[in-house]
Amino acid sequence: MIETYPPKAERPPAADLPVPAAAARFLVLLAVFVCAACGLIYELELIALADYLLGDTVTQTSVVLSLMVFAMGIGSLAAKRLKGPASACFGVIEILLALVGGTLAISLYLCFALFGEARPVLIGLALTIGVLIGAEMPLLMTLIQRIRQQDPGRAVADLSAADYVGALLGGLAFPFLLLPMLGEVAAALLTGVINVLAGGIIVLWLFRGDHPPRVRRRLALTNAAAVLTLLASSLLVAPLEGAADRMLAEQLEAPPGTHEGLRNE
To answer: Which DSSP symbol is given to 256?
Structure first.
């Protein structure tokens, strides 16, 4: 009897890199670190703003965390169906994540100021951000394997370590640095800008050999437009925070300016 074996999985093509493989691998792990920090900051932003605008900390925390973890699983599955080079898909996902996550505070404040209710936007943001975060890791796994083929278990261990340490940094930076110095809205916008830059370095420089010049120009313009959008959105910070303060003061019969308590806690 002749024994048959399943065909080996097709390996991704080796990348044409501008730096040695060791340096390229370090840059991808650094991108994992930065993206994980940004992702956790978005998560903490949602929880903090949900508590501030809606109250009931336990309920809002449970809803945001549950929805985001569920959506991350959906995003990981959806990443298998993405078409095109993994580097381009990663770049587009980082742009979308930066725009959605960077403007999440503005979206919540705007919805609350217009309708006096922010739950639908909160749920939509938690699901959207979760899906985008979940799609990152499979793409990054493909990218790091294109730099240098290695045992999948070792690659996952390296990516997971960078992801967890980055999450630690984001979790500490949000309450001790970003929130006291910038406030919720500006902190989210700055995180979005960092997110765009991290994705741009990977797709436009490290893996630039994956794309013809026309595609690189389009990606560069899209990254620049995302950064400009986030910077321009900073003009809305003061009006929206003031409107939310006034509405909450009216609802709670408290003096305006209670928003500063959250910012400085």
So the answer is: T
Contact of 146 with 13, CB cutoff 8 Å: yes
Which residues, including other chains, have CB under 8 Å from residue 47's CB and lie 6 or more apart? 60, 61, 64, 65
Residue 205 burial (CB count, 10 A): 13
Residue of 199, 256, 240 lying closest to 110 (CA atoms): 240
Q: What is the pTM of this model?
A: 0.86
202-245 tens-digit pLDDT: 999 999 988 899 999 999 999 999 999 999 988 877 777 777 67
First to last CA, the chain: 72
What is the DSSP code string of 209-234?
A: GGS-HHHHHHHHHHHHHHHHHHHHHG
**CA atoms of 156 and 158, how far apart (whole Å):** 5
Q: Based on C-alpha coordinates, what's the Rg of the chain? A: 20
